[in-house]
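For reference, the entry.
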Amino acid sequence: MATPPSPSPTSPPSTPNTTSSPPSPSLTPPVTNTVTPVSPPPPVADSPNATLPPPPSPSGGLPPGTLAGLIVGAGMGALIVLIGVGIFVIFYRRRKKRLAGAHPQGVDPQHWQQSVPQIAVLPKPTTPPGITPHVYNYVDPPSTSTSLGSEKPSNPSPSSGLAMGRSLGTFTYEDLALATDNFSDSNLIGQGGFGYVHKGVLKDGKVVAIKQLKAGSGQGEREFQAEVDIISCVHHRHLVSLVGYCIIGEKRLLVYEFVPNNTLEFHLHGKERPVMNWSTRMKIAFGAAKGLAYLHEDCKPKIIHRDIKAANILLDESFEAR
């Protein structure tokens, strides 16, 4: 007999959940100032056409371009300065030549130089031991004045006689021939392109050196007297003094004081000569320099020796240069 099914228990109805959990608050986290590091850009692959900037100078100096510009600028500045100095020197020399060539009476200096021969222009003479006469060449021609107002001796007339030779003596040819034993070779103490120099003793016992100029020089009486006039103005302890002169026909003779102790060349290079000590050498050098300074600066008109050498420096007994 069938058993009737037992009734299944009935589930009680679910009671709705009236109690709900509060919703979780949705909070936004605070924003901070944190800087997010930026990743460096990826390296660029080297390419043959890529141009890299020049590396910075390790010493912190100027860029090469600026330095090159400074060098070029300095060079240009130096060049401009040199050009300016050269222009100044050229103008200065031209001005000096114009002043030196100024002649108020319109005298051509070249013509004057030809009309008055220059005794100093000589071939190199061979001088034996003894006196070597000093020869001079003067710079400015004789005139009454110059553009600067300095007085110059004027050319004397041939008839002026002793007026042109200040305190000079005039000698006859016979007097000088007698003094030199008729210009004998035993009294010959110097010779050269200018002529001959003989030692002589005058009637009063004065020892002199007589320079006889070679004939045929074309020097007239007027020109010779002008030459003597200028030489006679030279008075200095370190220069040989002119004692007098002689003019007869074409003969021209000059009479100088005699300096007895030979020449500097003889004492320096003569055979078996003792070595000159240092103090004597300095004494001679200073004396010669003083004589030249007088000729170049103090003498009126200025005189140029033009043949300075040991053979033309005479020495007296005290080794004073003449």
